[in-house]
Write a structure and sequence with these properties.
The chain is an alpha+beta fold. The chain folds into 2 domains: 123 residues, PurM-like, N-terminal domain (60s Ribosomal Protein L30, Chain: A, 2-Layer Sandwich), CATH 3.30.1330; 131 residues, PurM-like C-terminal domain (Phosphoribosyl-aminoimidazole Synthetase, Chain A, domain 2, Alpha-Beta Complex), CATH 3.90.650. It is built from 8 helices and 13 strands. The strands form 2 sheets. The chain has a 7-stranded mixed beta sheet with strand order 8-10-7-11-9-12-13. Strand 12 and strand 13 form a beta hairpin. Helix 1 packs across helix 6, helix 3 runs parallel beside helix 4 and helix 5 packs antiparallel against helix 7. The longest helix is centred in the middle third of the chain and has 21 residues. The chain is globular, with a radius of gyration of 19 Å.
């Protein structure tokens, strides 16, 4: 467990230098609300929300690439509208097979793929990237807004299995979350992807300058990509009601604290000094309201 915790923490900071290179690009875009300086799940310009993911290895992209790219829009409070993809493959027959799998994801989610690019060549590494465009429903939900005494909940099932199973699990999570937005004050939300649920929870807390007391282990491999959501709320009762309506699993992970540390039960797994170091190292600025 200690090795995985260390890996998750390191994973959070591995792109710091890249973000710093582009740091002042935010100032060049009129109407930008979430960009490089927020490092959130998607970009927000006015009411428009955009996300790009990949390049994914071909096998993963065919099963879940579009699903995951859409997931990052929804967790920020947006409805995905349409997408583009860019693939490079060995030959045109492989491109046709891949396109059929992408169409299954597109049809299942109701997010049309309107175009993109296809590269064919013997010396290419087969992979795919996606861009999804969406529109905010209300205000954007940041990953940084957790408040003291908030309950951290994990929403949705692990996105795995066949394409159909993955689409069903993701769509259930999307529909549940979008209804929650209408009925519950969600202070913070993040997709469990890079760094696993522990790494993503750590990032939420570092950005909020808060700690947590973890009271359950929702999945034993804490660094694994899962594809469900971590949300910070004070009203658990209403969340349970809406999740039950959609038959969407929800598990309480822990409670947000003012103490700048991460605890599992009585054991401190991330000390205050380490949290302070992460706060100093992580390039981050609060979004403008």
């Amino acid at each position: 467990m200690k090795t995985e915790i260390k890996r998750a923490i390191e994973h959070m900071c591995e792109t710091n230098h890249v973000r710093k290179v582009f740091w002042h690009m935010d100032e060049k875009v009129s109407g930008l609300r979430y960009g490089i300086k927020q490092g959130d799940d998607a970009i927000v310009v006015g009411k428009d929300v955009l996300n790009m993911e990949g390049p994914y290895p071909l096998k993963i992209a065919r099963k879940t690439g579009l699903i995951h790219t859409c997931s990052d829009l929804v967790v920020m409070g947006a409805k995905p509208l349409y997408a583009l993809n860019s693939m490079q493959v060995n030959d045109i027959n492989e491109a046709k097979e891949v396109a059929e799998d992408l169409k299954k994801q597109s049809d299942g989610l109701g997010v049309p793929i309107l175009g993109g690019n296809t590269q064919v060549g013997d010396n290419l590494t087969p992979c795919i990237s996606f861009v999804v465009f969406g529109r905010l429903i209300n205000e954007p939900i940041p990953d940084s807004g957790a408040k003291t005494n908030d309950r951290i909940l994990m929403l949705g099932e692990v996105v795995e299995g066949s394409i159909g199973e993955r689409v069903y699990r993701a769509k259930t999570k999307f529909d549940t979350f979008l209804e929650l937005m209408e009925e519950v004050d969600i202070h913070a939300a993040k997709d469990c992807s890079r760094g696993g649920w522990f790494g993503n929870l750590s990032e939420m807390l570092v950005k909020a300058k808060k700690g947590v007391r973890i009271t359950s282990i929702p999945y034993p491999r804490i660094t694994r990509y899962m594809g469900n959501y971590l949300i910070a709320v004070s009203d658990v009762k209403e969340v349970l009601k809406i999740a039950a309506k959609h038959k969407c699993p929800v598990v309480e992970v822990g409670r947000v604290t003012d103490e700048l540390s991460m605890k599992m039960g009585d054991e401190t797994v991330v000390e205050e000094q380490q949290m302070m170091d992460l706060i100093k190292k992580l390039p981050y600025r609060c979004a403008k309201s």
